[in-house]
Amino acid sequence: MMKAVKQPLRHALLWGVVVATALGLTACGKKSNPDVTLILSTTTSVNDSGLLAYLAPYLKEEENITLDILAQGSGQAIKTASDGNCDVLIAHSPAAERDFVDGGTGENRQEFMYNYFVIIGPKDDPANVAGSVSASSAFTGIYENGADFYSRDDSSGTDSKEKSLWSAAGIDTSDLPDDFYLKTGKGMLDTLIMADNTGGYTLSDKSTFLANADKLPNLTILYEKNDELKNVYSVILVNPDVYPDLQHEAAKRFHAWLSLKSTLEKIAAFGLDTYGESLFFVN
């Protein structure tokens, strides 16, 4: 006759089965997501800051997603999404993003993080930008001083913000002389390097400047953290009714993953060890 299992031992065995089953389900859950590569159209600032490289191993481990990154100005990044040439979009040009969604090609625009634009210039600051009372008045001072100003002029989110600051200063950029208002047509890092080479001024997102400060020995942050300079980033899906052949299910998982508390905590921690401050803040 088989002996009855003593009660404490029976409970231990049952608990072991429960734990093993739970672990098995967790493991299966992770494996249930297929290995997917998403094409992400995004801004140069998000990529050049190093944020995506920092998040990549967590995204792979938690969602089995790898990103193929197309880094462009926000205007071009949104066009890439509008043409159906990416699976998901991250941008920082709110008006253009809303147009993209209102036009029916984009959907589920979610603001998830922000940082600040900063006015960058030479350390001796001949235009006294550091003493300005507002970002727009700083632009007025740069113009009156005649120091070189470098504009990306690429329809990016940074370019849109820069032109709005000139407008707030009562200055039409089409009236600015070519030997003062220097149009680069390039991304943020290339534009910063040009300004560094000649002691010029420019507008940048703070994260790209800090992440590449070793390449920019002649420049420094002169003005920052003004409400005029807030820089909000959004993740947006491409409408599956418009482009049904994209990786929509994986894009939805990536979109949701960016809003998880655990992911936002990772974003908020990015930069602390290296710079003593976060490069991005989370909503």
List the helices and strands and how they pair.
Layout: H1 7-32, E1 36-43, H2 44-48, H3 51-63, E2 65-72, H4 74-82, E3 88-91, H5 94-102, E4 106-122, H6 135-145, E5 149-151, H7 157-168, E6 181-183, H8 188-198, E7 201-205, H9 206-211, E8 219-223, E9 230-238, H10 248-258, H11 261-269, H12 272-275, E10 281-282
Parallel strand pairs: 1-2, 1-3, 5-6, 5-7
Antiparallel strand pairs: 3-9, 4-7, 4-8, 4-9, 4-10
Helix pairs in contact: 6-7
Fold and architecture overview:
- The protein is α/β, with parallel strands linked by helices and 283 residues long.
- The chain contains twelve helices and ten strands.
- Strands 1, 2, 3, 4, 5, 6, 7, 8, 9 and 10 form a ten-stranded mixed β-sheet that branches.
- It starts with 6 loop residues before the first helix and ends with a strand.
- Residues 1-29 have low confidence and may be disordered.
Keywords summarizing the entry:
globular; 283 residues; 12 helices; alpha/beta; single chain; disordered N terminus
Name the beta content range: 15-25%
In whole angstroms, the N-to-C terminal distance is: 66 Å
In round numbers, the mean pLDDT is: 89
Helix content: 40-55%
Low-confidence stretches: 1-29
Largest sheet geometry: 10 strands, mixed
The number of helices is 12
The string of secondary-structure elements, in order, is HEHHEHEHEHEHEHEHEEHHHE
> Structural class of the helices, strands and pairings?
alpha/beta
Task: Please tell me how large the radius of gyration is.
Answer: 24 Å
The number of strands is 10
> What is the general shape?
globular
